[in-house]
Amino acid sequence: MNKKSFIIILTVVIAILIGVVIYFVHQSRRSTKEMNEIVEMMAFEKEQLENEFSELSIEYGNYPTTLRNDSLVKLLENEQMKVQQLLEELRITKATNARRIAELRKELTTVRTVMKTYVVQIDSLNAVNTRLEKENKQVRHQYQVATKKVEVLSKERETLSETVARASRLDITNFEMKTLNAKDRATKRYSQIATLEFDYTVSKNITTQPGLKTIYLRITRPDDEVLTKSPENVFPFEDKNIVYSATKEFEYDGEAVDDVIYWKVEEILQIGDYRADFFVDGSLVGSFQFEIRK
Q: What is the pLDDT of residues 177-213, one digit of tens each?
């Protein structure tokens, strides 16, 4: 082989080697680019998975604040803790660990399935609570209406009772006070007054319960003291006992009754205006003014 042929063959071999090197370099660069793209895709998938775990954790965390069922709240809190643990594991897992990321993706699917069952229970409880709240409002409204009706009826009954009581109450009319001397004769002389005579009429009232009744007379002096023979002479009036001056029983049948009560003067009578109050059946049935003058 001459020198010229050798050079030609060597040149061809070198050219082939250069072409092979260029080919493998090109293939290597292509593989590296493809690998980088795969790594980027895996990193993106991992990021998306992290976002899904974070959103699910937030969703779990929002439900307990609106629930009144302690058992369900505890289950939701446990599931939220589980999601948090998986999220933390995902964050420290390399994007190139395709196997573990796939497993975590399955875990996410499982947790979501559990979440759906809880959502169904939560919706059911909310529906029940809404219905109960509506029923409670209706019951409260009905109770308020019933209470108002009772109050109205009570007031009407009270008014009716007061009306009946007023209608059945006796009245004293035709009142007159006379001063008598020691011989029970009328006198105008102050020094001869021995007895005070109170003439009156118990008016007609057919609504009053008939029968034996007691009338009490209270004579009040000008100084507002009540004349009485004994401090033990008392009768009930408006939840307390008050003293009376004189008392008398009479038979009442619904018709008008003319009657008289006497007060025996055993004290020095004050000069001035007096008041005579009459009471029957626990009610004040007449009040009149009279005067003693010299």
A: 999 999 999 999 999 999 999 999 999 887 788 899 9
Asked if residue 79 lies in contact with residue 118, where contact means CB atoms within 8 angstroms, the answer is: yes
Q: Spell out a b/e string for 76-92, using b for 16 or more CB atoms within 10 Å of the CB, else e.
A: beebbebbbebbeebee
The larger pLDDT score, comparing residue 55 to residue 193, is at 193
Q: What architecture is domain 172-292?
A: Sandwich (2.60)
Residue with tokens 């996410």: 108
Q: Would you say 235 and 216 are in contact if contact means Cβ atoms under 8 Å apart?
A: yes
Token pair belonging to 166: 């007023």
Q: Which long-range contacts (CB under 8 A, 24 or more apart) does 237-244 make?
A: 237/279, 237/282, 237/284, 238/282, 242/218, 243/218, 244/216, 244/217, 244/218, 244/279
